[in-house]
Amino acid sequence: MNPKRGDHSIFFPGSTGKVYQLDGYAPRVISTPAIEQAIAAATDRDFIGFSWEEPGHSFYGLKCANFTFVYDVSTGLWHERASHGLSTWRWQFVLRAYEQWIVGDAESAALGTLSTSTFTEFGNTLRVECTSPPIGQDNIRLKHSRVELVFEQGVGVVTGQGSDPKVMLQFSDDGGRTWSNERWRTLGASGEFKTRTIWWRNGKARDRIYRYAISDPVRRNLILATTKSRASRKDIRRAA
Q1: Where are the alpha helices (DSSP H) in 17-140?
Q2: Domain shared by 160 and 61, yes or no
Q3: Cβ–Cβ under 8 Å, residues 128 and 80
Q4: What is the Cα–Cα distance from 102 to 186, expressed in whole angstroms?
Q5: Which CATH number fits the domain that encloses residue 146?
Q6: pTM across the whole model
Q7: Which of 19, 119, 131, 239 is the most buried (most CB within 10 A)?
Q8: CB 79 within 8 A of CB 72
Q9: Is residue 142 assigned to a domain?
Q10: How many structural domains are present in the chain?
Q11: Mean pLDDT for the chain?
């Protein structure tokens, strides 16, 4: 388990299975119970740490053969990254040189650079996926009449894949154990800035999770996610 410096701090996983950030000379736990459970269950104990920056954010990544978890220093939140078709991220290292962030690909032994305008990963599909917190109200069945994801619209490329970019939405009513069929909506071809990404008539649920994904090589800037959900008088009387 190797320490890694990032955002003027040192990050490292400890022998207890927790992940720490040095606060001066004192280690501060930054891992969550979910991260610690994944570390405890990992069959590969050869962890790699790396840090880098993207516009407005500093990141610390912790990788092994089972997973790659990334800590956003700016927000204090964790997320998981895995390359398309793999269980972990294909990055093997990242370093700063020549005024660029240079990354090494563990799959092809190639070198690349981080770019905010590139939406593939060493020429392969770069898929983004986001899952919402549970949506519910006192265990009452809610009618989900509308879900809208507000993206930067009209981001389609001129030709080829991404000329009519799509976003896929699914939902789960059993805590993520099973998911609905995929339902696709457009993000708008190039210049179609007034496109709206809306799903109507999404049924009823007591406790629902939504998940969206985008794999087209276009910008994926989510601005707002909204849902119109309410309980009918009939369902309220039943709950009472």
Answers
A1: 33-41
A2: no
A3: no
A4: 33
A5: 2.60.120
A6: 0.81
A7: 19
A8: yes
A9: yes
A10: 2
A11: 90
